[in-house]
Specification:
The chain has one domain: Metallo-beta-lactamase, Chain A (4-Layer Sandwich), CATH 3.60.15. Helix content is 21%, strand content 28%. The chain has helices spanning 14-19, 79-86, 101-104, 111-117, 129-135, 137-140, 202-205, 230-240, 256-262; strands at 3-6, 23-29, 59-65, 68-73, 93-95, 120-124, 154-158, 163-165, 168-176, 182-188, 191-194, 213-217, 244-248, 267-269, 274-278. Strands 1-15-2-3-4-5-6-7 form an eight-stranded mixed sheet. A seven-stranded mixed sheet has the order 8-9-10-11-12-13-14. The radius of gyration is 18 Å and the shape is globular. It starts with a strand and ends with a strand.
């Protein structure tokens, strides 16, 4: 079943005014690299009858109504399952947050869309471009293989600042994923998506003012070296101060209902299939 949540009016940020577009945020996956249930685990969450505790690997889809566009953020290992579940029939562009397997290994299945639509632009951070280009060299870097068929037709677009994508301004926000790896969060008008991070540096805070909806990494209760704990995520959300916050990338030690009951009123855990509408 697809669940839907209506969001309040956006907060009037400059980017929101520039885009002037109604948006629909679709949570394709809200789990960690293991997914939930975890293979071989019989913990209460992994065996829970609550469908909101079934979490595929983290990814979202953003639909714009004016101009019309469907933008995917990350292509997870569970991409095919997510596309079938949500009945997605078009992807116009792809944004990648970083090169970890759970965020990119669905790119091969994008071929069903490029077969119908033609070549699709895939926007990636400069610090992840070589790794992604290497893993998918047959898609990005081997023109001689393009006649074989059955290949995703993708154009690798390396970005290091705001970019216009299909009439919409996309701003990457560099964040730490532990001490050695960086990721890009993305802001699109009144929406920001920040996953796989454990801090929001001061320079990033200025890019996150006036948000209507913030999506934020919140792995588990216990601290982690490369992800926000739930308490850390709550503190970060309060600092950023959006109208509403949705937590994602949640592990199998966290029960959805229990977490939802413990959070402030304007913060809630997302779940697979949740749709959030953001009026323009």
């Amino acid at each position: 079943m697809t669940h839907k949540t209506e969001s309040p009016q956006p907060g009037g940020s400059p980017d929101a005014a520039a885009i002037a577009s109604a948006m629909e945020l679709v949570f394709l996956g809200t789990g960690t690299s293991h997914g939930v249930p975890v293979i071989g685990c019989d913990c209460p969450v992994c065996t829970s009858p609550d469908s909101r505790n079934n979490r595929t690997r983290s990814s979202v889809l953003v639909r714009f109504s004016r101009p019309d566009a469907t933008i995917l953020i990350d292509s997870s290992i569970d991409f095919r399952q997510q596309m079938l579940r949500q009945r997605i029939n078009r992807i116009d562009a792809i944004l990648i947050t970083h090169h970890h397997a759970d965020h990119i290994l669905g790119l091969d299945d994008v071929r069903v869309f490029s077969d119908r639509q033609g070549r699709i632009n895939c926007y990636v951070p400069p610090f992840a471009a070589d790794r992604i280009g290497s893993v998918f060299a047959y898609a990005f870097n081997s023109p001689e293989m393009s006649t074989w068929g059955g290949l995703p037709q993708l154009s690798l677009q390396v970005i290091n600042g705001s970019v216009e994508v299909l009439g919409h301004r996309i701003t990457p926000i560099k964040l730490p994923h532990g001490p050695r790896i960086s990721v890009f969060g993305y802001r699109m008008g009144p929406l920001a998506y920040l996953t796989d991070c454990n801090d929001v540096p001061e320079e990033a805070l200025g890019q996150l003012e006036g948000l209507d909806v913030l999506v934020l990494d919140a792995l588990r209760q216990k601290p982690h070296p490369t992800h926000f704990s739930i308490d850390e995520a709550v503190a970060a959300a309060r600092k950023i101060n959006p109208r509403r916050t949705f937590f994602t990338h949640i592990c199998h030690r966290v029960d959805h209902a229990a977490l939802a009951a413990s959070l402030p009123e304007n913060i809630q855990p997302a779940y697979d299939g949740l749709i959030v509408r953001i009026p323009g």
